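Discussion board: Methods & Data

I've been asked by a reviewer to show the raw model output for two of the constructs in my manuscript, not just the figures. I'm not sure how much to include, so I'm pasting the format here to get opinions. Each protein appears as its amino acid sequence followed by a line of discrete structure tokens. Is this the kind of thing reviewers expect to see in a supplement, or should I convert it first? Here is construct A:
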Amino acid sequence: MFGIDAPELLVIAAVALIVIGPKELPGMLRSIGRWMATARNMAGEFRGHVDDMMRQAELDELKKQVEAGAKDAVLDLQGLDPTREIKAAITEGASDVEKEMTAARASVDASTADALEPPPVTTAELAAPADPVASVSPVEPEAAAVPPVSEDVASAAPEAPPAEPVVPTPANQPAAPPKVAVG
């Protein structure tokens, strides 16, 4: 600090103690502290004023640049509207979705049209069978409904009681209580 080292401060303190005296030295140090605080406050205010002047000069320079730029190009505030940009992006996305939906509908319509067409019939399927008797077997309608059961399987499996038909109940009616077998 100001090029004063510790030994020099000790010499100054000793001279001040001898010249001022031990009784008046604390009051003198207080007044020096107050003077230093006032000097610091004044320096801070001066620095603040200088900073304000620098900011004002920068703002004036910026203002001149904007005015010079405004003469060259008109400032378009409509072009800075973010809601218009968002709306444009949404409508663009919606049109893309509509294009994809029409393409999907067309592909679904084409696939359903292909599914509804009957398969092509070959000439071999249209030809009559060579032996009409071998291709048709006389089967009783009752025999066709029940497969034949061997005697071993029939004797091993117990006869099951006939199942009760399941009748669905409407949604607004309560379900019937379950039947309990007693015995």
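Construct B, same format:
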Amino acid sequence: MRQIVLLRGINIGPRNRIAMPALREALTGAGLDDVRTYVQSGNVVVSTDAAPDELAGRCERLIADEFGLDIAVVVRTRDELAGVVERDPLGEVAEDPKRYQVSFLSAELDGEVIDKLEEVAVESERFVVSGREIYAWHPKGVARSKLWARLAGKGLGVTATARNWTTVNKLLEMADG
């Protein structure tokens, strides 16, 4: 089964550096098949029969053992990722795929957390919570966005890692290839 492994917060600035060739080698050595990476920000497509939660845990332990880093991992199956792309609830307004983000969550959010996100979103921004994903449109970018700061932070109560719409679609293409 094709699965997408999303590492949180690697290769952003000088901390949590992992070279993608070394990551591919480590994952292949751990028994995963057809390991491919996309860009440097921790996007991996693999084949395995492991359940997604089991795969996430295995990858977290492997990264800790091989690279000495405590990195959270979120996994989606190929079909789950296809569902994310099919839903595309902000496709009508999100005209720049680099400013259209999907946050992949380890579990669904509490209603109180969603209420707090609504409080910080400015009028031009939009977001939709759909199961274990948050679709967010940041037309003015993420640099000064209070919504983005909340989505990228650790205050959601669950593990979260975001990818822009271009990356989401490329990962689905890789999972299909």
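Answer (T.O., handling editor elsewhere):
This is acceptable in a supplement if you add a one-line summary per construct. For B, something like: The first helix runs from residue 20 to 29.
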